[in-house]
Amino acid sequence: MWNRLSSLIRKEFIQITRDPRTLAMTFIMPVVMMFLLGYAATNDVRNIALVVLDRDQTPASRRLIDAYRVADYFTIAQPVGSEEDLRNLIDRNAARAGLIIPPGYGRTLAGGGNAQVAFVLDGSDPTVASTALAAAQLIGQAQATQISIERLQARGQTVMTAQPIDVRTIVWFNPGLISAYYMVPAMIGIILQYLTTMLTATSIVRERERGTIEQLIVTPLRSWELIVGKLTPYVLIAFLNTIEVLTIGVVLFHVPINGDLGLLLLLTALFLVTTLGIGLLISSVANTQQEAMLTTMFTLLPSIFLSGFFFPLAAMPVWLQAISYAVPLRYFLIIVRGIVLKGVGLAALWPEVLALGVFALIVMSAAVMRFRKSLD
Questions:
Q1: Whole-angstrom Cα distance, residue 372 to residue 42?
Q2: How many CB atoms neighbour CB 93 within 10 A?
Q3: Residue 38, burial from CB neighbour count under 10 angstroms (0-12, 13-18, 19+)
Q4: For residue 344, what is the DSSP state?
Q5: I need a labelling partner for 287 at 20 to 30 A (CA). Which of 42, 145, 239, 311 fits?
Q6: Can you state the angle between helices 20-39 and 289-306, rounded to 10 degrees?
Q7: What angle do CA 222, 283, 30 make, to 5 degrees?
Q8: Across residues 219-238, what is the average pLDDT?
């Protein structure tokens, strides 16, 4: 019995070692998962980009700005001269929060009165917005307490009166900080990448396994016709999936679609060029459907963790944020959330559209060249 069993075990090890790429992936994937979970899986948000509109321009207003600057929660992005400029920066994700100091702020404090400031938050990311909301109120209260203590010392009093600074918070785009508003649009990107990449890769590998790809090669079809013919059904499926997710999001989760649906579908097509290109690349490398599926999962992991799907990019180490710029899904999530939640257009999203277009061109060109080579 032992001889039979040992022979079977030895045979299985030999079979496994005949597919070194799949074997290597089974060992590399846990390392990548631990790496991403250890560094990227965190909601401890710091260095939130803050834009400041200081209409007072007094030492008192600069003191309040410094209080937010020295805090670990915020990084002053840049000063602006109008509320329109402030909104444009938040629309373009150049800032996640805005501090508006009204004129007369310093004069009101100097006269012993109570001054109000506005703190605007981008609610499209509830995790970042919740952290920014709590930090904004805490820093404002600390600054108000310090001013109250200085007033008491100057007057020789011991009883603290009302707080001299009132930080009024305003949450844009998602006032209730509902997580579904943030997650449902992002599901479009995850579903599109996973399904189109996996279906494209496994479909072509399945043809190769069964020997039917050779039958297609000997037909009068040109290489580009073969590629277009194989990819077109998955493009249609992907668009149906997009409409399906949006419909479920609106009907069941009441997610508002504030932007242009036609623009969303157009930019979705641009993202599909990238995902289909990744599927073609995988199909030209993988020898079996199992290997194609494992490779698809391997490419999906960085996209989930480094795109801002689950965890805010602002909470990650700086070097990991730099790596995230090489993840196409990062740009698509900004696009889909910007259109669905913020209602913005190309004027605010053109950097992400340009980056996604470059990725699509590079990935699809490399995939087509590699796929043609594998057919020869």
A1: 42
A2: 22
A3: exposed
A4: -
A5: 239
A6: 10
A7: 165
A8: 77
- Phi/psi of residue 86, each to 5°? -60, -45
Q: Which pair of structure tokens corresponds to residue 220?
A: 């009068």
DSSP assigned state of 342: I
347 to 89, 350, 354, 357: CA distances (angstroms): 11, 6, 12, 16
Q: Which residue do the tokens 């649009």 mark?
A: 185
Helix, strand, or coil (residue 210)? helix
Token representation of residue 295: 């490779």
Half-sphere exposure at residue 355, Cβ-oriented, CA atoms within 13 angstroms: 16
What is the strand order of the sheet 74-79 is part of?
74-79, 48-54, 97-101, 115-122, 165-172
Mean pLDDT of 195-210: 82
* Prediction pTM value: 0.83
Give the tokens for residue 307: 């795109």
Q: Looking at the chain, how many residues does it have?
A: 376
Q: At what angle do helices 223-252 and 346-375 cross, to 10 degrees?
A: 140
Q: Does 35 have pLDDT greater than 80? A: no
Query: How far from the centroid of its chain's Cα atoms is residue 281's Cα?
Result: 24
Write out the two tokens for 115: 């001054």
Residue 99 pairs in a beta bridge with 52, 119
**Residue 183 in tokens:** 């997650």
Residues 308, 330: contact at Cβ < 8 Å? yes
pLDDT digits (tens, 9 = 90+) for 71-107: 888 888 878 889 999 999 999 888 999 999 999 998 8
List b or e across 322-346, with b for residues whose CB sees 16 or more CB atoms inside 10 angstroms. Answer: eebeebbbbbbbbbbbbbbbbebee
Every domain of the chain and the residues it spans: 48-172, 178-375
User: Which is the CATH superfamily of the domain at 48-172?
Assistant: abc type-2 transporter like domain (3.40.1710.10)
- Tokens 């944020």 appear where? 321
Write down the residue that tokens 């250890």 correspond to: 38
The 3-state DSSP class for residue 287 equals coil
Q: Which two tokens stand for residue 214?
A: 């050779």
pLDDT digits (tens, 9 = 90+) for 57-81: 999 999 999 999 888 888 888 788 8
- For 310-322, the DSSP string reads SS-GGGS-HHHHH
The alpha carbon torsion through 13, 17, 21, 23 (nearest 10 deg) reads 30
